[in-house]
Amino acid sequence: MQIFYFHTPAEMPQSLHPSAAAVIDVLRATTTIAWALHNGAEAVQAFADLNDLHTAAAAWPKSSRLLIGERGGEKLEGFDLGNSPVAVVPQIVAGKRLFMSTTNGTRALNRVRDVPLLLTSSLPNREAVVQRLHQHKPETLAIVGSGWEGSYSLEDSLAAGALVYRLVELDSTLNVLTNDEAKAALALWQQWMHDPESCLRAATHGQRLIRLGNHDADFRCCANIDRLSTVPTQGEPGVLKSA
Ligand code: 3SL
Question: Which of 65, 98, 148, 151 sits CB 3.0–4.6 Å from 60 for a disulfide?
Fold first, then answer.
């Protein structure tokens, strides 16, 4: 397995055709996706474009759909939920299809939607994703951070490093880390692995969320490593189900 890490979806070269991709948006899209599926959502359908989301949602029975998402960290007008992983509780999401759009995470997913094995990763489902990748042994894995509007995100690199750390631990014979970004992400995880929540809070987007209001529960949830066995996996384009 060759592992590449890209800080943002735009950094992934068009010429690279990985056999697997793991998209990360720790704060908070891929954490919310993992928790929603763990709590019984039928699927999460991700959209970069809001018009596309509304068209697809309108074609789905009203009683079994929810619109979730944010822009700039704040819930979208007319949507049922924002993008908090602690809000997607079983009483609200079980059996529902979640039509989701976020500032960066769903755009990153859209960029790699043609990759044969597409998963989403976060700190809570890190080990589950590692086990899935170890089982599939893709030739080339692209770990894709969502970043923030085209720029680097500390928290996505932390989670990329967490993933890499365990993949290397499972197969230390491999010289798997193909780009410097992957090596730097690993070093970042080694620096913060005993206190990931502080890293999330220190990150620029963590600071943005703190300015918007009390997000303590979100920080705790997003930093809660290896808590979930859910691996959100793309079946049809844009549609993630628990696998
Ligand atoms: O950028 C995104 O996709 C979101 O996860 C950002 S937020 O944490 O919901 O503000």
Answer: 65
H or E stretch covering 241:
strand 239-242
Which residue reads 């509780």 in tokens? Answer: 89
Domain locations along the chain: 2-234
pLDDT tens-place string over residues 162-194: 999 999 998 876 567 789 999 999 999 999 999
Do the strands 20-24 and 117-121 form a parallel or antiparallel pair, or are they unpaired? parallel
Helix (H), strand (E), coil (C) string for 122-149: CCCCHHHHHHHHHHHCCCEEEEEECCEC
- Mutate which of 205, 207, 210, 219 for ligand 1 pocket (most atoms within 8 A of beta carbon): 205
Summarised one tens digit per residue, pLDDT across range 79-115 is 999 999 999 999 999 999 999 999 999 999 999 999 9
CA dist 33 and 120 (Å) reads 8
Listed residue (48, 203, 202, 37) closest to 121, CA to CA: 37
Residue nearest to atom 7 of ligand 1 (CA): 73
pTM for the model stands at: 0.97
Q: Whole-angstrom Cα distance, residue 223 to residue 233? A: 21
For residue 109, the model assigns a pLDDT of 98
CATH 2.120.10.10 fits 2-234, yes or no: no
**pLDDT of the residue at 174:** 54
CA nearest ligand 1 atom 10, residue: 73
